[in-house]
């Protein structure tokens, strides 16, 4: 995720409204590094957060106020600080670059699929979250590239099981990343039905790029990756998916480019000043 640490927030164009028909000030925010006071997000039409870092009553009040809450759900990797780490560590297969306390996990394991759907996602459903911010579906791409990883075709099928299971709970599925999974499904290289229950394609670093994860140093995405992400977004949009971009700490000039591009395409976006996705000061 690049060099200047500014924060830009997209004003809501097609206003989301709360239960009192009061328009929200901002469209979308990703605050996965936050905890404590959930009321700070009440001006947002939708947010992606770690819901268990907040009091359940506060989350319910936020939802009651009309904010759509996407609960963070990591399906493709496993962090050491999770309470269930020891139960599933044996299913991890590779370190996660730039995140030293995290490892990629074998999503073909039925035990993992069941836990994600029937424990983690079910909990978010019980809280009446609007959907999940499903992270690390890029495990599919990792397994295509690595010889010692689980079979990528089985991984694709397993991701479908997870996506469908979460969707059946009544939660909207927002996949963070997964460009190659979506692209391959669109081209029938894998079962195209794998992505049918993805409601939102959420992609990081389309215009921006994280140069240093520790010191929040950001720059510009290379043209090849930028073009590819835009290409996949167009495909996903054509399938009826909503599109969200998450950018990092870029200049005023590039922020204006992101804003103009997303307005033209009918996309949503958020630009964060930190890799950890903390609330703007």
The CA-CA distance between the termini, in Å, is 19 Å
Mean pLDDT: 92
Helix and strand pattern: EEHEEHEEHEHHEHEEEHEHE
Low-confidence stretches: 1-21
Number of strands: 13
Main pleated-sheet profile:
8 strands, parallel
Please estimate the helix content: 25-40%
The global form is globular
The oligomeric state is single chain
What structural class should be given to the helix and strand makeup?
alpha/beta
Q: Strands of the largest sheet, in order across it?
A: 1-2-3-7-8-9-12-13
Rg, Cα atoms, Å: 18 Å
How would you describe this structure to a colleague?
The chain is α/β, with parallel strands linked by helices and 281 residues long. It is built from eight helices and 13 strands. The strands form three sheets. It has an eight-stranded parallel β-sheet with strand order 1-2-3-7-8-9-12-13. The chain has a three-stranded antiparallel β-sheet with strand order 4-6-5, with no helix packed on it. A hairpin with a 4-residue loop joins strand 10 and strand 11. It is globular, with a radius of gyration of 18 Å. The N terminus is likely disordered.
Structural topology:
Elements: E1 26-30, E2 44-49, H1 56-64, E3 68-74, E4 77-79, H2 85-88, E5 92-96, E6 99-105, H3 110-126, E7 131-135, H4 139-145, H5 152-168, E8 172-176, H6 179-186, E9 200-204, E10 208-212, E11 217-220, H7 223-238, E12 242-248, H8 252-265, E13 268-272
Parallel strand pairs: 1-2, 2-3, 3-7, 7-8, 8-9, 9-12, 12-13
Antiparallel strand pairs: 4-6, 5-6, 10-11
Helix pairs in contact: 3-5, 4-5, 6-7
């Amino acid at each position: 995720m690049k060099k200047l640490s500014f924060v830009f927030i997209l004003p809501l164009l097609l206003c989301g409204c709360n239960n009192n028909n009061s328009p929200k000030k901002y469209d979308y925010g990703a605050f996965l590094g936050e905890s404590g006071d959930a009321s700070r997000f009440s001006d947002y039409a939708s947010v992606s957060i770690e819901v268990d870092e907040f009091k359940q009553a506060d989350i319910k009040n936020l939802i009651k106020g009309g904010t759509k809450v996407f609960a963070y759900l990591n399906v493709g990797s496993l962090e050491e600080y999770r309470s269930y780490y020891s139960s599933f560590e044996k299913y991890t297969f590779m370190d996660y670059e730039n995140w030293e306390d995290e490892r990629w996990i074998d999503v073909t394991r039925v035990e993992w699929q069941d836990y994600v759907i029937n424990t983690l996602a079910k909990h978010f459903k019980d809280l009446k979250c609007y959907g999940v911010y499903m992270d690390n579906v890029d495990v599919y791409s990792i397994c295509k590239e690595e010889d010692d990883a689980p079979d990528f075709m089985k991984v694709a099928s397993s991701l479908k099981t997870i996506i469908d299971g979460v969707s059946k709970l009544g939660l909207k599925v927002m996949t963070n990343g997964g460009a190659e999974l979506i692209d391959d499904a669109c081209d029938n290289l894998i079962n195209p039905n794998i992505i049918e229950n993805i409601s939102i394609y959420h992609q990081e670093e389309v215009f921006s790029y994280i140069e240093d994860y520790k010191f929040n140093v950001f720059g510009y995405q290379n043209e090849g990756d930028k073009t590819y992400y835009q290409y996949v977004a167009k495909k996903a949009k054509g399938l009826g998916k909503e599109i969200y971009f998450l950018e990092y700490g870029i200049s005023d000039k590039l922020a204006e480019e992101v804003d103009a591009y997303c307005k033209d395409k009918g996309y949503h976006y958020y630009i964060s000043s930190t890799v950890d996705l903390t609330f703007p000061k």
